[in-house]
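Re-run with default settings, no changes from the original entry. Doing this only to confirm the output is reproducible before filing.
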Amino acid sequence: MPTPSIDYYWRPGCPFCSRLESKLTKLQLPLAKHNIWDDPAAAEMVRSIANGNETVPTVVVGSHRMVNPSADQVLLALQTEAPELLPEDWTPPEPGRVSSFMTKVLRGG
């Protein structure tokens, strides 16, 4: 069975890519990096996820496909797709006030 990783699609000069990569690297997460300018298949993958656009960073964790995610969104995807990759001291963030309110509204409470 292959070792799970985070497929990380990026391009040179992208400040959003640099910022996210820095955060994920600090967490010592395994990144399989794909430069969309050097790899036509990687560019095609990003277009298939981002409605025909080459928007990066794009991240794939198992069945989760995310365009310009936050580090927290990547960690939440790992929680369900590859929990063994999570840092030992990581705990899920508390839901915000809007999220809590919407949960109550949708549940009818």
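The radius of gyration is 15 Å. The chain has a mean pLDDT of 89.
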